[in-house]
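Quick illustration for those who missed Monday's session on complexes.
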Amino acid sequence: MFTAEIIAVGSELLTPFRMDTNSLWLTDRLNSVGVEVKLKTIVGDDDARLEETIRDALKRSGVVVLTGGLGPTEDDITRKIAARALGRRLSLDERVLEEIRAKFLRWGRKMPEINARQAMVMEGAEVLPNPNGSAPGMYLEHDSRVVALLPGPPREMKPMFDTHVLPKLASRAGGVRVARRVLRVAGLGESAVDERIAPVYTQYKNPQTTILFTNTDIEIHLTAQGKTEQEAELLLDGLSGQIEERLGDAVFAFRGETMEEVVGLRLAVGGFNLAVAESCTGGLIAHRLTEVPGSSNYFMEGVVTYSNEAKTRLLGVPEEMLERRGAVSAEVAEAMAEGVKRRASTDFGLAVTGVAGPGGGTQEKPVGLVYVSLADDAHTEHRRLMLPGDRHLIRWRASQAALDLLRRRLI
Ligand code: ATP
Ligand code: MG
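Prediction with adenosine-5'-triphosphate bound:
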């Protein structure tokens, strides 16, 4: 197994306005053939710093992937500096030049002379064609190191890497295959999750386990290596099965699916339909559900009843109940769920009411207090939640809890 580093070149990547996303994509691809990324660097268009970075990279990494700076202008320095750092001559390749010229003709333009620079090739390098742009890439093996120069624009870089670099690395990596899986957990806290599954996953180096805490749920990332894809997948099956045993229903996805996808699939498979009444989430649940293609098969309607008056007029929540219990209460949440179900004649009615903050909290009903409720033909239930976070997070977490309530009913 050999290690890689990625060097992203371009001063724009050091501004607050552009992000180096190429390296994220490249890391995923390199990992998939068993090449581990140990280091990433972002370097501006600066001769000395780029040269130093490339020299250092060659000392420590088996694979060095550069992206960016292959354009035709004076500040595109990657070709020139890589050649200097590797001690290789750079010379004009007439065939490559003709190809670039021909490409411009196909685009209906005459090649600006400045683009001739892109036909400068390092001695010993294989030229990687770029069907999506003018700058060709380069691949070379140097003192048992692999060096790849790729263009910066993602739509040029990605196909070039997949077509010309990845297959070479895969065969050099000795046929290691990597498989990944993302399990997602809802309704359990971080420490509860770790407490239950640490005794299992700490016993394995392969698969490797990483636990990530996101806004609404906990993700368990499993990465396995095997001689074949099947072998790696089998290792994942084993560990993911043990984790599921420990966490039970709290695991809602085994392949990284979102909550709304899982709920949608369950509704579709059961042939059920749904209507939603939202207060503090302001339509977020309806939005999430309808992001999923095919949701029209089960999602019938959603109403945002923000005011008390709307809760009464649209959902039939009794005025007297709103006055006595307040809009944020178990009774009102249930009346909303039943009201929207009745109104839409659906199998399920789902409702949320709560205090998202930052204002509006009281001692009795603090910011973060949320009730979610689910009604079907047989009965209506609710959950009372105290959600941490700012307004944005509380709304997100409330939507997740509501969807999770429905998911659990559909199991
Ligand atoms: P060009 O011929 O377009 O100049 P180039 O190889 O010189 O290609 P750059 O000039 O470095 O590439 O980058 C062109 C554009 O590609 C950037 O403005 C940016 O939008 C995108 N880009 C470059 N590097 C990256 C990166 N690491 N991650 C994401 N996008 C990038
Ligand atoms: Mg450029």
